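Tokens as discussed.
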């Protein structure tokens, strides 16, 4: 996670119940993604574990909170996985400190409701490889959700596109991720048509 406004984490079990985790992993289509993967805001490791199961190489899981890192690290260990490297840092303050153009995919899940979203997206674009993907999910703003930041602060497609202007990122498709989220992929440095918008 990064230090953003209007945040806060409920219990791990309740948090995990708010996602169709398998559907989101399927949407990521990790088998077609070049490793490694960076997850900015790993939280409890809700997605770190299933992503690491599918990734052939390294997953970099980053969070601001030491307690989130401890929990996610334990969840990874319990799953018997050895391909995750954890980094505790405030990405808004010091970035990811990952090499430029090094990641096949960068995950930004439920962290782009802050005014600093462009800064986060700029860092994600920096570390993504040419033709690499940024995968974003966030709380929907068109329905009532049991958690999430204020509706006014939640980004939609147009907000994301405004935020990535000039970052050499091309929309690669968006879709509703039931029950409470939506997702969007952005491709670095390439005009593509292989993804389509699914509403």
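Sequence:
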């Amino acid at each position: 996670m990064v230090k953003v406004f209007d945040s806060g984490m409920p219990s791990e079990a309740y948090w995990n119940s708010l996602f169709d985790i398998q559907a989101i992993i399927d949407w990521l289509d990790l088998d077609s993604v070049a490793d490694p993967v960076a997850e900015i805001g790993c939280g409890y490791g809700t997605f770190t574990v299933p992503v690491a199961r599918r990734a052939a190489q390294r997953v970099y899981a980053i969070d601001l909170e030491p307690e989130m890192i401890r929990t996610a690290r334990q969840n990874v260990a319990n799953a018997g996985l050895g391909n995750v490297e954890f980094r505790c840092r405030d990405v808004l303050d010091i970035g990811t400190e990952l090499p430029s153009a090094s990641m096949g995919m960068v995950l930004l899940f439920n962290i782009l409701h802050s005014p600093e979203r462009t800064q986060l997206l700029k860092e994600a674009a920096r570390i993504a490889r040419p033709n690499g993907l940024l995968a974003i999910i966030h709380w929907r703003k068109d329905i009532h959700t049991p958690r999430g930041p204020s509706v006014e602060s939640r980004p939609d497609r147009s907000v994301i596109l405004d935020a990535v202007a000039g970052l050499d990122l091309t929309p690669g498709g968006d879709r509703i991720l039931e029950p409470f989220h939506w997702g969007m992929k952005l491709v670095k440095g390439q005009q593509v048509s292989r993804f389509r918008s699914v509403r």
